[in-house]
Amino acid sequence: PGWILFWALLGAGEGAEEPPAGLLEFSLGKFRNFLLNESVPAEAVLRNIAGNVTLVLFQIHAHYQNVTVSFEQESSPSNSGTGVDRGLVSVLRLEQTVCTWYLRAVGANQVLSTAVSLPYTEKDPIPGGCNLEFDLETDPNLYLDYNLAETHIIFAPANLGYVRGAHPPSCDSGTSLDSRWRLSYEVYQYFLPENDLSGATFVSHMRRMTEVPSIRAHGSKMMTLTSQDKTELYFSSLPGQGVIYNVIVRDPKWNTSAAYVPVHTYACSLSALVNNCYTFRRLSTKIFFTNLAFLGLFVCFLGHRFWKTGLFFNGFIFKAFFLFIIITKESALSYDATLGLTAAAGIIGALLLVGYWWRFGLVIPCMLIVGLVLGSLVSSAFFFTPVGDY
Asked: Its domain of life (predicted)?
């Protein structure tokens, strides 16, 4: 059903164009869906750009296969970007009315993609305009990597807008209110529908996180950074759950804003043969958590009668929880290996707690572990509410 819907999107509305990419005509603010090939690059052209537009942010998104967008037919690190969510900023010259970009799939043919070009004026801040870390001179991209526990995002600071033909404002001329240091950054998060890994769903929802008004209407604001803060973000990974992130840079002097290129992740691979997004439906996961659930129900209703069983359960959770964090943070073990080590560590922790009670019979240290488990559960439930966004 997901693929059927995607092809429907491809053939209707804004995406009603020939599927194979060749020469692609774009209009400002209008999305286009198309198929990209590795062997034959596509040429994206934007014409009739208004004189008040000072820069155009062109961005392309694919579901899980990498694509390259570049200023030249022969791409290089300094004139292109490669990934599933990538964009380029075209700073317009005097009298320029046409922009051209070149698109190519990486390592595959017939890659379903969607792209859009967004205009900004001289008073709008420039996303990634003060880039000192990445290859592009102006880099509006969010760079994302993840593991089983956390998602890490970094991006380049923005610069102030300026008129066509002028030199860009200095990024390091001072920290006054007339410099880029007055800019602030709003970080937004948007969850895709649960248990839906389809390309059609991805395309339709990605459109909600590209332009400033739509981002603020649909996204959840996670935090606001000042120019003194590091442009580095950490979020909890939710393997199998699609999430879109974006950053809006705001200029308080002119009350203008601009959006970076949104980036998405499922915190897992859709294409890997093993350890992919369907890992969490595998037999080992079902066995582990089903047994844990039955033990939890037993302790919940009969734990007051079976004191040592309750201690075993809480000792298991306490030890397994901390070791799981350490393993995922410090190692690159496979999912099954991580699950097995977590279970083994939990059993050892459970036996140690029961052994402590059997040997010393002290209630307070044992109840301290139980209280920590309860506190973790309550705080997790509390911060899962909208309170956790602040």
From this structure: Eukaryota
CB of 168 within 8 A of CB of 129?
A: yes
Q: Where residue 332 falls among pLDDT bands split at 50, 70, 90?
A: confident
Strand pairing of 80-83 and 67-70?
antiparallel
Superfamily of domain 23-164+177-265: Immunoglobulins (2.60.40.10)
Residue type, 174: G
Q: Mind giving me the DSSP string for 60-88? A: EEESSS-EEEESSSS--TTTEEEESEEEE
Longest dimension (CA), the chain: 85
Do 126 and 138 meet the contact criterion of CB atoms below 8 Å apart? yes
Domain map (residue ranges) of the chain = 23-164+177-265, 282-384
Residues with Cβ within 8 Å of 249's Cβ and at least 6 positions away in sequence, in order, are 125, 127, 158, 183, 184, 185, 186, 257, 258, 259, 260
300's tokens: 């919940």
At 351, the amino acid letter reads: L
pLDDT per residue as tens digits for the range 36-89: 988 888 999 999 999 999 999 999 999 999 999 999 998 899 999 999 999 999
Separation in Å, CA 34 to CA 42, 132, 134, 203: 10, 33, 28, 11
**CA-to-CA distance for 340 and 348, rounded, in angstroms?**
12
Q: Is the dihedral of CA 215, 217, 218, 222 positive or negative?
A: positive
69, 99 contact by CB (below 8 A): no
Q: What are the pLDDT digits (tens) for 112-143?
A: 999 999 999 999 999 999 998 999 999 999 99
- Element at 55 (helix H, strand E): strand 55-62
Per-residue CA distances from 340 to 148, 343, 344 (Å):
15, 5, 6
Length of the chain: 390
